[in-house]
Backbone:
């Protein structure tokens, strides 16, 4: 147990996969006897769960650590412990270590189960030693995969919970450092996922969001072919009033069976996050995506046929080496076809240790930013038009929080954190965060909607 009075805080950075880890860290620290406080200034030790995927995220982590260090009082508290992807990234790419210089200790994935002990040693003035160095070509250690099965302390929306079905990635895209950080694909056992899903639902979650680095590849490491459809069918045996949502679905592994499983039950949100990254044949090859333009078009048709009316989210990368005006023009034309509801665009940056980092023929950063702006401007008009077509539609709304202008929530076509919201002016008596209510869409904008409550 922690010494009476030992308080800890946590700052969570990065993606939903990191959020799940943060919830596990919070749960482990609480079970070990540490007392959580929301404000880092009031803590004896502050854990900063970092993102190391892009240069911008590394700079954010460094700034957070430096700001926390600058706020220390006379006791030199809080002591700062860095966890997460940047710790592993810096362990495998020493030139990135300065981003963590303000941390008093660094803890890698292998030692997450030991975090309370690391913090106790640090508070006692002892050296805090942890292994970290990335997992290129191998799976994350069993200690981490087992740790994922431990109780989590939920943060964020009370109604939505991320359900991590796997770790790592075996796609090895040319630009991506994820396989260097989190290793090759390792799917969680189905029984462990189902157990956690039931626990999350019992604790009040109304939306279970399936996440991994590549959800559509779930099970390929132990079965040789995608097992996501089988997992979905088992999850759909749960009797609860739930939504299920699928994120991070790699186009290469999307199958008719997966889409048919999604279409088989109204509790699966008619929504798919399909990160395409580009559509030009040459660029897809340079990026190492494992498919060409024909697969992009086939996947879009596949979704239209098996999951008609589904909202589609995707991401693109602009400025990758080899992208000229011709290649970008094809990407822009694809977006202007108007088949995408939600879009994220990233400017390429060289990641140490990746194949793309050694490529020539780079677009200047200013050109990449200009292309990003053009894509987002085109998509804003399309998103507005696609939402406008939903005006008058009746749908369920998952309430999340109450603000001055009404209750904010999300429809089945709006995922948390990355898409827009729907504002309900009058939710009626008894409305609570994490509850469903029936609404009619009354007004739409480029990304957000307004709605009024209806009886059915």
Residues:
């Amino acid at each position: 147990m922690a010494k009476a009075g030992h308080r800890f805080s946590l700052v969570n950075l990065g993606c939903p996969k990191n959020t799940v880890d943060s919830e596990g860290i919070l749960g482990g620290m609480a079970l070990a006897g540490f007392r959580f406080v929301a404000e880092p200034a009031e803590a004896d030790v502050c854990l900063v769960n970092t993102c190391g995927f892009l240069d911008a995220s590394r700079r954010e982590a460094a700034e957070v650590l430096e700001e926390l260090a600058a706020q220390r009082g006379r006791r030199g508290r809080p002591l700062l412990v860095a966890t997460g992807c940047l710790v592993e990234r810096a362990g495998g790419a020493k030139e990135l270590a300065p981003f963590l210089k303000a941390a008093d200790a660094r803890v890698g994935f292998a030692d997450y189960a030991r975090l309370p002990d690391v913090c106790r040693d640090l508070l006692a003035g002892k050296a805090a030693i942890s292994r970290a160095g990335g997992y290129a070509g191998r799976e994350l250690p069993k200690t981490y995969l087992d740790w994922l099965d431990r109780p989590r302390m939920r943060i964020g929306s009370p109604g939505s919970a991320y359900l991590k079905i796997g770790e790592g990635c075996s796609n090895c895209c040319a630009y991506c450092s994820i396989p260097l950080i989190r290793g090759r694909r390792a799917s969680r056992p189905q029984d462990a996922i189902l157990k956690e899903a039931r626990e999350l639902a019992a604790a009040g979650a109304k939306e279970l969001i399936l996440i991994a680095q590549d959800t559509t590849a779930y099970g390929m490491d132990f079965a040789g072919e995608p097992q996501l459809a089988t997992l979905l069918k088992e999850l759909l045996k749960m009797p609860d009033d739930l939504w299920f949502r699928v994120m991070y679905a790699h186009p290469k592994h999307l199958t008719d069976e997966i889409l048919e499983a999604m279409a088989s039950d109204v509790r699966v949100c008619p929504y798919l996050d399909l990160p395409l990254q580009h559509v030009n044949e040459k660029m897809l090859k340079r990026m190492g995506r494992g498919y060409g333009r024909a697969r992009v078009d086939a996947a879009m048709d596949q979704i239209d046929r098996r999951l008609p009316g589904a909202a589609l989210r995707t991401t693109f990368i602009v400025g990758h080496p080899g992208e000229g005006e011709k290649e970008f023009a094809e990407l822009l034309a694809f977006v202007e076809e108007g088949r995408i509801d939600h879009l994220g665009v990233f400017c390429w940056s060289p990641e140490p240790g990746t194949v793309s980092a050694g490529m020539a023929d780079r677009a200047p950063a200013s050109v990449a930013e200009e292309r990003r702006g053009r894509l987002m401007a085109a998509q804003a008009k399309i998103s507005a038009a696609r939402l406008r077509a939903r005006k008058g539609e009746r749908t369920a709304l998952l309430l999340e929080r109450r603000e001055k202008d009404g209750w904010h929530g999300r429809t089945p076509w709006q995922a948390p954190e990355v898409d827009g919201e729907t504002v309900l002016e009058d939710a009626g008596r008894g409305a609570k965060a994490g509850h469903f209510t029936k609404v009619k869409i009354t007004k739409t904008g480029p990304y957000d909607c307004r709605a009024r409550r209806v009886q059915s």
